[in-house]
Specification:
By secondary structure, the protein is α+β, with helices and mostly antiparallel strands. It contains 22 helices and 14 strands.
């Protein structure tokens, strides 16, 4: 297979670099003595290794041979990697060292950009990703969705009420601050009900932890439900979904992921295709992805068709509810299917909601809470992207790179268990290093949303989906071209027909107990059938087909490092290449029709070939560009089903020997601190 001829690379990492937080396991082998050992921190190695195998969290396997290295040097290298990849404390991660130097030297830059240079989507300062760290960010989101019965609450400023909630969040307007303070003690983690999103019909999506005070449970539950009901313009009742009883638990998800990794990493194509697919089904990973999509669609039915508010209840309210709340919003609101919107969704429902990235991603290699919940969400989003490609601005490359970024310990976005932990740990670190914070609440870590820190403007164009129909793109209906026109509330594709009160029977009595369990399957199935019968609207409601044939393995994420699984000049990359050329040609023709001097994005004909992310002198935002009208070049040699990642496995297979370590270390000095690590009994 030909080598890659394009220059897609991460500015922070070399071609074969592995972030320390991306290392999952380190195995040393001595071929002569037929010994091997899994290395942990501060362990001794009693034999001289001839080979080092690094198993990575992104499914890579990097193998090094020590044929040209001295035995003692090989031992020191293995022990040093094992030591530094498993730090004993959070403040030993690279982000703290980098930020500490940044504060001591305010003029320092990273990759030519000022440190912490904002949270721009794709590095474009005109489209900032809201971080939801301030009152104003939450207030703008409430106004964007038209949530009239809700208010931004500031009682948690300084994390005085709950350390796993943000300082600002949205609650029903009818709940006073004093009521919230009183109720908070009864919830697990003091995670009182918080608003996530509101539909244009008035229904809302709310998240809440379990009430631990058994004696007060019914009273508090009724008070909360009444408050949510009052926030609905029609005073509709509340539907409560108990996620702990409805969905696979965290242990089951982790077990399925371990089986999936074993299948995809450990020589996966030595068996027959039929047996391999049977083994894939046996992992239950795709079954669980389907379960989350299915339950999200059921809740969309309640919000969209039944027009009732939905309360997501979970033990701590910061795991499964992150996935469900995010998927529901992706299906209902096209803003969250843009790059900036999707990033704001992750900030709102994951980072600020207290998802435990430190423990779930196991950055310190000693957490028993490890679980790939964020990856499962990205996988489910990819399923929707595959099923509705015209509805998403971002590509699967963007989703894959976003997943990879959780294992780079430079960014504060995916480094902590909560915003409070970031403030607390970084403040302690600042005091220990004599860093003056001034008015800042803790150190400011680089944001992962500043993609210019990782990729050039040209490479960031791979984040854009060439199939995306922009909000001003024309669509063809009944043979005539009609532009999309969106008003403030047209993000909802409300069901046409009689009012909800006439269709669904009499309105429920106020104060009645909130319905629980799953919606009636018949109503959901009818809702799905009627939705599929409508003309496709990329800016309306999205629902996933849920049959087994429609839920697929995300090959770019799980099989990209496996040479046997790659298709030369094939796969989704080939289709994206063709679509990019067509979109670019359409954009060029549109500019020609608009007249000379019309730049990208000018006029109503602006399409996916124009927009933010384009570098200086570039007309559009697509990676592949047409050289002229009717240009149909052949598929580039470097394209494969794993594009833009390595087409040769990146040293990950047993049949491919890694470069001798001495080539990588050429002239490098072994740290003095490893001298003691290499000692033997």
């Amino acid at each position: 297979m030909p080598l890659q001829k394009f220059h897609y690379r991460n500015l922070l990492l070399g071609e074969h670099d592995v972030p320390l937080t991306c290392i999952e396991q380190i195995v040393t082998i001595n071929d002569h003595k037929r010994k091997q050992k899994v290395l942990g921190p501060n362990q001794k190695l009693k034999f001289n290794p001839t080979e080092l195998i690094i198993y990575c969290k992104d499914f890579r396997i990097v193998r090094f041979r020590f044929d040209e290295s001295g035995p003692e040097s090989a031992k020191k290298v293995c022990l040093a990697i094992a030591h530094y990849s498993q730090p004993a404390d959070l403040q030993l991660l690279f982000a703290f060292e980098y930020v500490g130097k940044k504060y001591h030297n305010s003029a320092s830059n990273i990759n030519g950009a000022p440190p912490g240079a904002g949270s721009a989507a794709g590095g474009d300062s005109s489209q900032k990703t809201p971080l939801f760290e301030t009152y104003s960010d939450w207030d703008r989101e409430v106004k964007r969705t038209g949530a009239s019965g809700w208010r931004v609450c500031s009682i948690n400023e300084g994390y005085m009420i709950s350390t796993c909630l943000p300082e600002y969040f949205v609650v029903p307007s009818s709940l006073a601050d004093q009521d919230l303070k009183t109720f908070s003690h009864s919830f697990v983690g003091r995670r009182m009900p918080v608003w996530s999103w509101s539909h244009s019909n008035g229904s809302a999506l709310v998240r809440v932890a379990v009430i631990k005070d058994v004696l007060q449970q019914r009273k508090i539950d009724q008070r909360i439900c009444n408050a949510v009901t009052k926030s609905h313009p029609q005073r509709s009742d509340v539907y409560k979904s108990d996620l702990d009883k409805t969905l696979p638990n965290i242990q089951e998800i982790q077990a399925a992921f371990v089986k999936l990794k074993q299948l995809c990493v450990n020589e996966p194509f030595e068996e027959t295709e039929e047996k391999w697919l049977s083994s894939l089904e046996g992992t239950r990973w795709l079954e669980y992805v389907r379960a989350f999509l299915k339950h999200s669609a059921e809740l969309v039915y309640m919000l969209e068709s039944k027009r009732v508010s939905v309360v997501l209840q979970e033990e701590e309210g910061r795991d499964l509810s992150c996935i469900i709340a995010s998927l529901v919003q992706v299906m209902l609101d096209p803003y969250f299917r843009t790059i900036t919107g999707f990033q704001s969704l992750i900030q709102k429902e994951w980072v600020m909601a207290g998802y435990q990235f430190l423990d779930r991603c196991n950055h310190l290699k000693r957490s028993e809470k490890e679980a790939p919940l964020f990856l499962l969400f990205l996988d489910a989003t990819w399923q929707l992207l595959e099923q509705h490609p015209a509805a998403f601005e971002f590509s699967e490359t963007y989703l894959a790179v976003l997943g990879d970024s959780t294992h780079i310990s430079l960014f504060g976005t995916f480094l902590f268990n909560s915003p409070h932990q970031r403030v607390k740990q970084s403040t302690e670190f600042a005091i220990s290093k004599n860093i003056q914070l001034g008015d800042e609440k803790g150190l400011r870590f680089p944001s992962v949303w500043d993609w210019s820190l990782q990729f050039t403007a040209k490479d960031r164009t791979l984040f854009h989906n060439p199939s995306y129909v922009g909000k001003s793109m024309p669509c063809v209906q009944n043979g005539s071209v009609k532009p999309f026109k969106r008003t403030k509330k047209t993000y909802s594709c409300a069901r046409r027909g009689p009012p909800a009160s006439a269709e669904n029977g009499p309105a429920p009595r106020r104060g009645a107990p909130a319905p629980r369990g799953r919606p009636a399957d018949g109503g959901v199935e009818r809702f799905l059938r009627e939705w599929r019968a409508r003309p496709a609207d990329p800016h309306g409601l999205l629902l996933p087909p849920l049959s087994g044939a429609h839920i697929r393995l995300w090959k770019l994420r799980y099989l990209r490092w496996v040479p046997e699984a790659q298709i030369a000049r094939g796969g989704a990359a080939t289709a994206a290449h063709r679509l990019s050329l067509l979109a670019d040609e359409v954009d060029a023709l549109g500019r020609t029709l608009r007249g000379p001097g019309a730049g990208p994005g000018a006029g109503p004909g602006a399409g996916p070939g124009a927009g933010p992310g384009a570098g200086p002198g570039e007309r559009g935002r697509l990676y592949f560009r047409a050289r002229g009208p009717h240009d149909t070049p052949a598929t580039p040699d470097f394209l494969s089903s794993s594009f833009p990642f390595s087409p040769v496995g990146n040293l990950c297979r047993r049949s491919i020997l890694g470069t001798p370590l001495s080539k990588f270390l050429s002239g490098a000095r072994i740290w003095l601190s490893t001298e003691t690590l290499a000692g033997e009994d």
